[in-house]
Q: What sequence folds into this?
């Protein structure tokens, strides 16, 4: 039975618990009475990573923690993030927003099969199990799958070889004399050393992987980044076709 | 992760308590129902075009066409960013107002909410709305959705 079929079956049964997909390199879907409470994956930054990142001014210490988190050892980080929430250092509204962002990101790699290492093969359900970050709202399985579908469409429309798991690098010289970047665009550019993929950069910056991939694509289009190795065949200076500018709209109306 | 730290933060401390909490994000956005002529309002993550929450004038739940509006709004903000960047203009976008014959669409950025800013995308019935008042009410929503200032965040170490 496919992972999706198992998920829909559990939704029909109004099941509560955790559905583990693809073993250690996959994701976990937490169901509450047949609706999706949360999704997490070892491949994308979880809500604990998004919550804790601003509290780590030292990038090297954060990078060490990222290595631990990406091995799936998230218990201590989850406890620290829960402590932030309990002591009111992170506002409940912002925490819930970050939870929904992390959830959609994990759902994409768990159910969207956009990464080779997360091909949906195995499914195991543990009844009653809950995620540490209590959902303030649950989502219908169909709504989560629709969002996964939308994101898969956006990724399929990316050009210049940009993909979540393909390394990117800065161009040696800028294609134009002057360029204006946002703080996030600068941070992404700084992390694009030729070895990091958009997903790696997302972990380092404490942002979601999908949004970072789209932002990397944007930077590739204006000629700041390029997919490694080597420059793309067509120069990035060429006028941007309209369908590339409206990346989200064209994906949702395709 | 050091074993010393693991002992200090007990795993039990993160065990869930079976209490249904209120959806604070929904409550914050539902304040926009007080805007005269409101048809729909969505909270959108601009870098992924994800609709985080939607409300309409009457009922809760799924707002039709919210995802398409959100996608368009994110593209518009992206294009305006490219436009102002090429002008070398250091100014920041306050809001985007789209006026159609029957409706207004308002896109208001909240630059410090979420991981990298959020958008509020609102559709108003032109005949029943006061645009200046609506913009004021949208701006008042900002502090409710923004995180506390960085100084208020207690540094917490996992290792």
A:
């Amino acid at each position: 039975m496919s992972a999706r079929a198992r998920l829909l079956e559990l939704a029909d049964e109004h099941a509560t618990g955790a559905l583990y997909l693809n073993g250690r390199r996959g994701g976990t879907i937490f169901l509450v009475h047949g609706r999706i409470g949360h999704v997490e994956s070892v491949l994308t930054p979880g809500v604990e990573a998004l919550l804790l990142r601003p509290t780590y001014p030292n990038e090297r210490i954060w990078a060490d923690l990222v290595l631990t988190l990406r091995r799936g050892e998230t218990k201590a980080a989850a406890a620290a993030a829960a402590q932030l929430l309990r002591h009111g250092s992170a506002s409940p509204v912002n925490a819930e927003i970050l939870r929904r962002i992390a959830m959609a990101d994990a759902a994409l790699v768990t159910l969207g099969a956009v990464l080779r290492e997360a091909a949906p093969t195995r499914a195991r359900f543990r009844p009653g199990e809950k995620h540490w970050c209590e959902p303030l709202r649950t989502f219908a399985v169909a709504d989560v799958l629709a969002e996964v579908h939308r994101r898969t469409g956006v990724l399929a429309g990316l050009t210049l070889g940009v993909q979540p798991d393909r390394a990117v690098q800065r161009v040696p010289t800028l294609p134009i004399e002057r360029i204006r970047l946002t703080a996030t665009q600068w941070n992404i550019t700084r992390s694009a050393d030729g070895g990091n993929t958009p997903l790696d950069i997302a972990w380092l910056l404490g942002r979601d992987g999908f949004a970072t991939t789209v932002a990397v694509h944007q930077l590739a289009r204006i000629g700041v980044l390029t997919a490694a190795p080597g420059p793309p065949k067509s120069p990035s200076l060429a006028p941007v076709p309209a369908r590339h500018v409206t990346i989200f709209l064209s994906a949702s109306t395709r | 992760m050091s074993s010393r730290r693991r002992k200090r933060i007990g795993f039990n401390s993160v065990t869930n308590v079976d209490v249904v909490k209120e959806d604070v994000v929904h409550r914050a956005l539902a304040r926009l129902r007080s805007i005269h002529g409101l048809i729909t309002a969505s909270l959108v993550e601009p870098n992924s075009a994800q609709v985080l929450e939607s409300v309409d004038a009457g009922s809760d739940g799924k707002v039709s066409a919210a995802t398409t509006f959100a996608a368009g709004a994110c593209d518009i903000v992206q294009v305006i960013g490219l436009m102002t960047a090429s002008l070398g203009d250091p100014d920041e976008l306050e809001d985007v107002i789209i006026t159609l014959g029957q409706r207004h669409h308002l896109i208001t950025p909240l630059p410090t909410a979420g991981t990298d800013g959020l958008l509020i995308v609102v559709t108003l019935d032109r005949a029943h709305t006061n645009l200046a008042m609506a913009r004021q009410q949208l701006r008042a929503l900002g502090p409710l959705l923004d995180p506390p200032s960085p100084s208020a965040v207690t540094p917490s170490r996992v290792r």
